[in-house]
Each structure stands twice: as C-alpha cells, then as structure tokens.
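User: My instructor asked us to take a sequence, write out its structure as tokens, and then describe one feature of it. I'm not sure where to start. Here is the sequence I was given:
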Amino acid sequence: MKSDFRHIIPIDKVGIEERVARFNTRSIKKESKMFAMRLAMQMIDLTTLEGMDTDRKVEQLCNKAIRPFNGPHEIPKVAAICVYPPFVSTAKKALGDSGVHVASVATSFPSGHASMSEKIAEVKYCVNEGADEIDMVISRGEFLKGNYNFTFDEVCQIKEACGKAHLKVILETGELQTLENVRKASDIAMYAGADFIKTSTGKVSPAATQPVTLVMLEAIRDYYLKTGIKIGMKPAGGIRDTKTALRYLVMVKETLGSDWLNPDLFRFGASALANDLIMQIVKQETGVYQSGDYFSKD
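Assistant: Let's start with the prediction itself. The structure tokens for your sequence are:
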C-alpha cells in the first residue's frame, strides 16, 4: 500500500527529548525489575558481524544464545543470533531445535551499495540456507535525495524475496540527519511490508538513541492505529547496560502498550548488553556481583 511520502510530518525535537527525560525518571520495583531484566534477555539478538568471523566463533555464540550462563542460575535464552550470510547454515545447525532464531544481514550490509539483483540474490541465499529473519539496509543515498519511491520499491522487492522469513528494515538513523527523516523512513518501510523497523547497523555513530527510538515507536503506533497491523521495533548499537535497556522497555510500554513487550515485537541489537543483564540478574538473586572475567566477551 503506497502512500504519499512527500508529506513532511513535523517533529518537535524538544518535546521528544522532554518525553524521553520523563521516561527515564520512572522507578521500577524490585519484583518488576527482575521480570524486566529477564524479559530484556529474551529480546536480545546476539550478533557477530566482523571480518574475522569463523564457523567456530559462530558456534560458540550459538552456545551462549541457548545457555547464556554456565552456572546454577537459570538465565533465559536470547531471541536470535545474527550473522553474515556465509554463516547462516552454521548457526542453523548449532541452534537446532532450541527455538533461537537465525537472522542474517543482507542487501550488501552495511553500505547497501549493490544492484537490486545482487541484493535479492543474497536474501534468497540466506533464506535457502535457513535464515528465519533478514536484516536489510535501505539505500540511504537514494532516500536522502528524496527518491522515496525507490526506497519503497526496494523494501517491497526484498520483502517478496524473503518468502516466509521476517524482514527487519535497518534505517541507519545516524545518517538520516533529522528526526523528520527518521519518521518518513519508518513510514515508508512499514507501508512497504517491513515486519520490524531497526535503527542502525551498529557500524555508524550515533547508533540507537532514545529520541530516535521514540520517533520510530510513535510511527509504529500511528501505523497500527491506521491499519491494525503490529510492527516490531529493534534499537541496535550503543545499548550496553541494564539501566539503559530498562529505560527502553519503559518507553515501549508507555508508547505502545504491553503487547509490544515480547520478543516477537521488540528486540535489542546489543550483544554487550547480555553480560550486564546476566550479572544484574545474578546480583538480584544472590546479593553478590559476579566478576566480568566469568563471562565470554562475545
């Protein structure tokens, strides 16, 4: 369903920042905090997207996804493993019937500079290898030139190539320059068929920020009110500690409601967050912090 994307939705930057500041003052009781931390753990996409990735490294990350902590405390498994296309089959085999999804970046991640035929071929390869989810990047250069129909058609074609796999559309908000552009890109992605909208590749600074995420959550809310379709959200990059993660969950709850507080509709693209969540959960249960030396750095 194509809309008129030439229309600009004005964003009150000061108002957005004030709402974020209010979210950050919310206090969470101890019982609710434990629930929220365990929920956040289940929302993580553990990710390895480096040139030095190997099958063994991916296998180790998959083991961590299924059993995040080798100790007496039961820590929930994560939502997904996200890898480059050559490692999809490795991850699929390692995860087995654990219920952890396999996600793969595609469409010439992170730049997006490739022909459409190359992008479609890469997506189909990932799906054929067993990917449950595809994380695509939009062509930011075309978007910033005002070629909004290109962006819409690009997402449509990738969505079709995904088949049954879910599509997360990465906007790379750090390159979009304004909150108005973030809102417009969010709308285009959703109307073109995205199952999730995602802030960042993690390769550009700034990555996920609360103001940008709030603008995207409000876009999701407005789209749901118009269509009845629930779109997922994934802030990625820069969320490294439990305190920040819980602030994001408060923002989701108060903007979209409890329905979005599940891994089917909200994810964290934040591998470093996992260790801090584990330490905080164990601290809540025992009263003692674990040393960071007991955790893998992946």
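For the description part of your assignment, you could build on this observation: The CA atoms of residues 50 and 217 lie 29 Å apart. Try explaining in your own words what that tells you about the chain.
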